[in-house]
Amino acid sequence: MPTQTQHGFHPVFCTIVPPHLLDKLSQSDNPVLADPARRTLEADAARRTRRQMATVVTVPASPAAEREVSDKPDRTLYDCRNSTRLPGTKVRGEGEDPTQDASVNRAYAGLGSTFELLLKAYGRRSIDGNGLPLIGSVHYDEKYNNAFFDGEQMVFGDGDGEIFVDFTVAIDVIAHELTHGLTQYTANLSYYGQPGALNESMSDVFGSLVKQYTLGQTADRADWLIGAGLLAPDVQGVALRSMKAPGTAYDDDVLGKDPQPASMEDYIHTGDDNGGVHLNSGIPNRAFYLLATALGGNAWERAGQLWFDVLTGGQLAVDADFADFARLTVAAARSRFGEGDETEAVLKAWSEVGVPTA
């Protein structure tokens, strides 16, 4: 595994709702829609700046050497009570009974499902590999339209009720944000341009895999949507993103049309959103979908194993681009499966989205 020294270990502030979508929402003529989006953007910008200024990560956990590494998760949930003070008031610890708060219980379950997939499918104990406790805070701020991982913990807003609902309703959102922690502790991909888009794609991939694992869905039965259920009933859309068909998740009068590209032919060159990390992630997302459905069965087994091998294998550079990652997935397929169907499927998937593997 890459060491802290090799990768600098600079955690980043990662949100599930991209800035471009909140910016579009903030420009609405309706203050009921615009004001919460504007406040969310301002809060995210402030927290992102604080995270960038932090030179050392402080993880709220004792060192691995001082705690027993267990096959059981260690979860703690807090309630911010609509404040921005983190972590908030403790409301549920590991092994404690469910509370009367559905948000707390959903977050608790989602953290547990992510831990379980990492352990059962890949033999990894928590996101750091050493049983790191998982911390989540719900009811962050008022009408906060986002969820994020800040390098130390998960945080969930309640949504404004007009465009977004409670961010704990989608288990893939919980797993998406926790996967940013997995990436932080392994390849530590930088959060700009193509490596940043890979960082986001990794979170979408494993977020979708946790959902499929929890629901017992094979690749052909999964919806391959990220954040299904997050959009309020009046929004014209089904999710935040579609891995199967990037660019089709929503087409709404207020939010506009989903701008994600599905191949390198439509790659978006922009300085916004850290060089389009939430936009261009649609390209590797679709490559994974193509691979998983070509192989069939449970996506977390063969396709997911290859992505996990590359993310945790120590060869993925912090500034890797799509082609670098693609070549490593081909090498991982050959190493694990030889020159069989898996390797051929990997080559074909990347070819279909226009990413070279030679």
What do you see in this structure?
There is one protein chain. By secondary structure, this protein is α+β, with helices and mostly antiparallel strands. About 40% of the residues lie in helices and about 10% in strands. The chain is built from 11 helices and 10 strands. The strands form 3 sheets. It has a 6-stranded mixed β-sheet with strand order 1-5-6-4-2-3, covered by helices on one side. A two-stranded antiparallel ribbon has the order 7-8. A two-stranded antiparallel sheet has the order 9-10. A hairpin with a 3-residue loop joins β9 (about 250) and β10. α5 crosses α6.
Short key terms for the protein model shown above:
alpha+beta; two-stranded antiparallel ribbon
